[in-house]
Amino acid sequence: MAAAPVVAELRARSVLVPMSRPVRTASGSLTVSPLVLLDVVTDTGVVGHGYVFGYAPEVVAPLRALAEAIAPTLVGRTLAPAQRMRELAGKFRLLGLQGLLGMVVAGIDMALWDALGKLADQPVAALLGGEPVPLRAYDSYGMVDPVADEAALRESVASGFTGIKIKTGQADPADEVAAVGQVRDIIGPDVELMIDYNQSLDPPEACRRIRRLREFDLYWVEEPVAAEDLAGHAYVRRHADARIQTGENWWFPRGLSAAVAARACDFAMLDVMKIGGVTGWMQAAGEAQAASLPVSSHLFVEPSAHLLAVTPTADWLEYLDIAGAVLIDPCRPVDGYVTAAGPGLGISWNEDAVARYEV
Questions:
Q1: Based on the number of CB atoms within 10 Å of its own CB, is 216 exposed (0-12), middle (13-18) or buried (19 or more)?
Q2: Handedness of CA 303, 233, 199, 26 (dihedral sign)
Q3: Which residues are catalytic?
Q4: For 155-211, how does the pLDDT look when each residue is reduced to its tens digit (9 = 90+)?
Q5: CA 243, CA 255: separation in Å to the nearest integer?
Q6: Which residues of 93-124 are buried (b: 16+ CB within 10 A; e: fewer)?
Q7: Does the reported pTM lie above 0.90?
Q8: Are 337 and 309 contacting, i.e. CB atoms less than 8 angstroms apart?
Q9: Out of 73, 101, 135, 327, which residue is the most buried by the measure of CB atoms under 10 Å away?
């Protein structure tokens, strides 16, 4: 019996990648993707890739340093993501897996799964018992100017997207009502419309605002209050007559468990980086199924396309490209659907682009 492949090296590089569509939120704008690219090099020469999104450029250096500090723990160990995750959770039990450390550990998990898929010449979706399938995607916008962004919104619909998400939370509620109404007029009644407050309101204000938007037939209202305020989300669910989406800021499956216990949401939005990589996602997907929560993805188009394909209550894939500029073959929507690519997670670096954007 051949020896199992082992990790020979873990490499980390940081890049600042221009976003094809800058994202404006109620709390600021994102014009670049601060990414840390992770490479798990095996003793067979196969390299698994994963990446993490730092949100702010100042964060990529400590993320990279954490990955480099963890690397010796993995060298010489087999490609067994679930076992490696248990060991890292044990190693850092007193600190806990969340924040920057949790992000790095999840990125390593993604790279381990990618390496497994490449060694087997199979997509990760197949390793998990499924197969790549077309997933309905929504086009994800920041805060929009309905006049300046009208052409882009119409193009999204014309290209096949059956869902559009916009960020909202304007200082003047009347401006918000006007903007949401204009977007609904632009995309028409047959395209689902989601809005995202990015945690910008308190519960009573969220209820007041959401009630004013009822006429626009919203598919969901996302993170109207602080992500960690589960009681606040539950309050808005009870009093605003709207379906509440949250989850992109849950740390590992325990975050989903707490939200379910608090009756905080009607949907679950899993972020593969914060939920614990491929391994954490699969655990959370089981819990979501048990709670009858439809699951959508947050960012990370490439790995999310594999994971939603094997998620029993899969709902929507968020299409917001944060890494395509450094990928050889980024996942692109076709007629409003995204299908996972392989082998592995379908991630291969465009080294010329990496060199251009590396910091």
A1: middle
A2: positive
A3: 167, 298
A4: 999 999 999 999 999 989 999 999 999 999 999 999 999 999 999 999 999 999 999
A5: 19
A6: eeeebbebbbbbbbbbbbbbbbbbbbbeeebb
A7: yes
A8: no
A9: 135
